[in-house]
């Protein structure tokens, strides 16, 4: 691995993004617009908005970055740039960390805007700090990127890649505690929820919601999500083959 | 002069079909070797095997003294795929600069590679907005940038107008004079005469491996296309 090549790859991916203004606009604006929608949906529901908006601040970057990354990586495969890159001095991890960094940065911007809108325009209130919410959002985005890189190996077309959203992302959303508190789930669902990384991300956000200072549970949750992202990146590296049939 | 590439008994399966049936050849260093044959004859597969991205079933390939695909070759072998593999959503310059960084080179080297392929005037354009010929030249620039000892070019002149094609060939020979080994595939026989040496392929086998002059002499004709046809007939005669 080389830091120079990793950073050059990050810069290249961000340049590609910059040329695609519409995608940038969607990335930055959509989460805030959806939060606004939630705000009006739960207008008279008191603290419900606070709870749901806080969780969504972590869910959006995960879902969006998963989708963006799996398509971006699939494009690298289908246009031949991946095969070409693998004949150069670039290491597999240079490419994967390059993606993680690039979309992690994009997610930081996205999260900053969404968090800003949620707290200052929509009146979101949490016991814990705003910075922690942004941090958790970025770690979630990196998890989305890592899973997207991994899943793109199993898709040959964009149609297939998009289908991984319901397969990989939706179950995590259903079981993360957003719809039903995890403690109230029947045993095997709870067990499934316990092995899905998004559950820990949501738990970390709920800790920020109720506690003024970062709790030990929150740090453990965050470590679990980070670990899951690293595992997914290593698995993704294993799917990159320099030699193909 | 020694060999840059030595291929021995190369067998490759793609899908469930065997597409290369035991190829053995040596490609001389510092020359332009043309890999000629109709589409589907296995040119791309042979190139992929030499670059080290193709899973091979049997045989050995030695490239610049190392087994094909080994890590130390990644700085020394440049590869241009048939479909231009550059980022359509980046400008020409952004593309070439990125590949320059992978080889530890800077912006000046990138600019030189861009003007070498005649794209200086288009360097700020997005690759996606370029014509097919320009796009493949952008792809070529990304491979030439690392000043590799071996350049493997899969149909680099397809879609280029005659003037540019002549330019590119002149550059290939210039690179060869500086010591680069080039392997250029084409299905256009008229490009064969521009090569120092020819490998003629048909249906996954080599049916000719010599200089253009020697191939013409052996076939008893001045026309390379005719020579190729005679070689095919001869080969089929042997097989039958």
Question: Which structural traits does this protein have?
Answer:
heterodimer; A: 245 residues; mainly alpha; 10 helices; B: 240 residues; alpha/beta; Rossmann fold; 2 domains; six-stranded mixed sheet; four-stranded antiparallel sheet; 7 helices
Textual characterization of the structure:
The complex is a heterodimer of chains A (245) and B (240). Chain A is built from 10 helices and no strands. In chain A, helix 6 (130-151) runs parallel beside helix 10 (216-239). Chain A is mainly alpha-helical and 245 residues long. Chain A has helices at 3-19, 21-41, 48-78, 81-85, 92-121, 130-151, 158-175, 187-195, 197-210, 216-239. The model of chain A has no long low-confidence stretch (mean pLDDT 92). Chain A has one domain (3-239). Chain B has 240 residues and is of the alpha/beta class. Chain B has 2 domains: 1-76 and 152-214, P-loop containing nucleotide triphosphate hydrolases (Rossmann fold, 3-Layer(aba) Sandwich); 89-147. Chain B is 35% helix and 27% strand. Chain B is built from 7 helices and 10 strands. Chain B has helices at 43-51, 92-102, 107-116, 132-144, 162-177, 212-219, 224-239; strands at 3-14, 17-28, 32-36, 58-63, 66-67, 77-80, 150-154, 181-186, 197-202, 205-210. Chain B has a 6-stranded mixed sheet with strand order 6-7-8-3-9-10, sandwiched between helices. Chain B is globular, with a radius of gyration of 18 Å. The termini of chain B are far apart. The chains are: A mainly alpha (245), B alpha/beta (240). Chain A binds chain B through residues 4-5, 8-9, 11-12, 15-16, 19-20, 79-81, 83-90, 242-245, and chain B through 13-15, 51-55, 69, 74-75, 77, 79, 81, 83, 85-90, 94, 98-99, 101-104, 126, 142, 146.
